[in-house]
């Protein structure tokens, strides 16, 4: 949801002449994506040690808590820190969920299941944009 709200606000920020707004929007997106990539790696290693389900719970908590804290941030830098930490959870969840699904379904339907998961994850966020 956090990502969707920022994605909807970002085009408006790009149309503004205010360079500061454009800069903060770009930083917020970049920091979250760096957290996303880092979270995929860190939580991927964690899921190999602790298991997929425990890792998914940890990533869900991280994403939920830090997404909420972005709304309570008092400074721009605090907001960026929460975006990075929330990105860790997002990246970890995608990695753990994809691996759990791949390990749980029969090989004959695995490509369809993984494709459906990715397609439906994009479709599921569409109502949040309305």
Unreliably modeled segments: none
Shape, principal axes of CA atoms: globular
How many helices? The count is: 6
Number of strands: 0
What percent of residues adopt helix (DSSP H or I)? over 70%
Task: Please summarize the sheet with the most strands.
Answer: none
Distance between termini? 12 Å
Class inferred from helices and paired strands: mainly alpha
> How many whole angstroms does the radius of gyration measure?
16 Å
Mean pLDDT: 84
Strand content: under 5%
Q: How would you name the oligomeric state of the polypeptide chains in this document? A: single chain
SSE succession? HHHHHH
Could you describe the 3D structure shown?
The chain is 87% helix and 0% strand. It is built from six helices and no strands. The protein has helices at residues 2-15, 19-50, 52-70, 76-104, 110-124, 126-129. The termini are close together. The model has no long low-confidence stretch (mean pLDDT 84).
């Amino acid at each position: 949801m956090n990502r969707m709200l920022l994605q909807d606000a970002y085009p408006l920020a790009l149309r503004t002449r205010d360079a500061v707004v454009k800069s903060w929007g770009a930083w917020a997106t970049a920091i979250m994506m760096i957290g996303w990539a880092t979270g995929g790696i860190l939580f991927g290693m964690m899921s190999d040690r602790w298991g997929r389900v425990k890792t998914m719970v940890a990533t869900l908590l991280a994403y939920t808590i830090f997404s909420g804290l972005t709304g309570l941030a008092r400074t721009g830098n605090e907001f960026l820190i929460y975006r990075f930490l929330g990105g860790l959870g997002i990246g970890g969840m995608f990695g753990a969920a994809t691996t759990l699904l791949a390990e749980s379904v029969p090989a004959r339907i695995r490509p369809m299941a993984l494709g459906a998961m990715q397609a439906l994850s994009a479709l599921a966020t569409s109502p949040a944009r309305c």
